[in-house]
């Protein structure tokens, strides 16, 4: 490895041909940091170097001058580039990878002063990652695009590391919910949409927004892209897409082609997603319920972390998608629940299946890299091992066919058998594989007679080099004489400086003197080296050719391989739900399209695991057509918020096809879940706590339906008592009379209890508190009836507030009560 590029160099003020080439390429990629390949390094210059050096924690140095000024430079080793790319991508940068397309020797054949040809072969952005080191195994890495046509909005999204490609039409109010569900790492947006303040505010929370001219969303242009990519004459064979859906998907495809250049990934057929088929959970509610992340933004103690018992990366990503898009179709939900029940009741099958699946590599992502020709030998091996596991799963399920239900049995044909491809990959690939194709040595002996001959010839040359070393030792009487090699001078004879006087033959040509050793070359050694280089080059060319043939064999079966991987992900999801239910004592819910929402002995799946086993206090919830509004009173710390959240979470779990933490559950399918629990000042947008509370409440009132589940906590607390009470009162009446949703409404306004007498479907419940011997104990139990005290001072006492303050508070309370 040549470290000289990190040293200051003397340079004329004139720009060198190499730097001219750099500036020309950089001028075409002003929006990206440019990784410019120089031998064993990627180098960054000028502003790019100044930006990248502190992020990458590497030295900022200089290389040459421009207009009398030093040119800032930093560099990273090419073999460790992914580590550095990860740091830049996490900071939201995109990086253009500029590779050498020829060696310096090849450039000199064109002209002695020729600059090595270089070209940007890929642009890496947060939404176009494919390498495992840059991705989280169980997380989806979506790239999305948004556009509109005649006030109709479409969102397309793709996961280029797996090939998932979908599009959906939505109304403006649903953009936030969909983007929250997808959590795209990058969003391409029609710049015309950014004129809409609401859309602009919605996108402001997205990780990486890339505005694109409206012309890129032109219908003819985008449709032509899609037809050309999928090699079809009409998109109607996929689905009946709207104009805006075609525009969003086509622009997304053009962006992929722009960033990936000639190496396009595998993409599945474009799938149209109807948002009306899924339970809608808006962004605020997802945050309040801590579905995928806790309030600090970590997966720790989130619902996803608790539910995730999957044993494959593909299964983990599927679980995440199911949580993002819970179902509302009764038949499909029960189909899943029944399949989970099969694995729940058959422990032997479940354990055996999960053991086999645990050996399933990430075939989806390996296949995508193979398809785009950005693969390594390990990716071919991953496909081989994955197909072998797929065969094992098919055999296991076939053997246990009598224990399967119709749905699970229908998965069998999707697990195609790949005996021939597995055998060929086994015959071709060595057990131990190098990290890179260019390293060679990955084709097994016996697979290619021609390659075997080259390797044998190479081994013979190495033997001759060894024999030559013995000959030189004998001739010079230097027993520790060595023949070694490095990347600078190739093969050389090395002796210690003490033995220099013994080298007196003219055949030894001095090459290099170091502190303790001297290096020589000989004609015989150079001849053998030349033969070895030719042999190595031919062997690598042949291995590369064989590698490409193997890639083509895999690509030819890409659709079948993807189908098997998707099926294994589905089986992993179902078996993991059964394992979860067994471990945590969950029950199969009754799920139908009725109005009942009845949970007996319900528990919060996350909170119960944070407590000693058996100490979580279970609670019932019973909502139906005659009683669908619970008004709940009781002190803070008594468990109201946990109770509200757990019922919403149970609904989500049931509607993804999971068993639920309860003794019994009968869930009437809900179409939307809304929550308004806690808030904070939105200082950046100038919105106070109360304004945020009112905006969220208004959104609920304007969007909740009769089939929605609404959980509200402390509406109206951000203003004066009478204003807050009046707002809460009015909101309750509107939800009861107009929305008619299933509602759990927690409040400190005891005056609201009187609404039980005027609103027919509203009933009052409270959190039980026990007072004994001057002490107050929160029982965390929900009971029918009204709370008559708030216990706020007691909560303040528990917080450690000074005793004088608590004493004075009780005195004031006594005075006010009189």
Automatic annotation (TrEMBL):
SMART domains in alphabetical order: MUTSac (SM00534), MUTSd (SM00533)
Record: residues binding ATP: 634-641
Keyword Magnesium attributed: no
A Pfam family that the UniProt record links to this protein: MutS_II
Keywords: ATP-binding, DNA damage, DNA repair, DNA-binding, Nucleotide-binding
InterPro entries named among the record's database cross-references: DNA_mismatch_repair_MutS (IPR005748), DNA_mismatch_repair_MutS-lik_N (IPR007695), DNA_mismatch_repair_MutS/MSH (IPR017261), DNA_mismatch_repair_MutS_C (IPR000432), DNA_mismatch_repair_MutS_clamp (IPR007861), DNA_mismatch_repair_MutS_core (IPR007696), DNA_mismatch_repair_MutS_N (IPR016151), DNA_mismatch_repair_MutS_sf (IPR036187)
Superkingdom assignment: Bacteria
Purpose of the protein: This protein is involved in the repair of mismatches in DNA. It is possible that it carries out the mismatch recognition step. This protein has a weak ATPase activity.
NCBIfam families in UniProt: mutS1, PRK05399.1
Protein name, per record: DNA mismatch repair protein MutS
PROSITE patterns: DNA_MISMATCH_REPAIR_2 (PS00486)
Residue ranges of every copy of the DNA mismatch repair proteins mutS family domain listed in the record: 708-724
GO biological process: mismatch repair
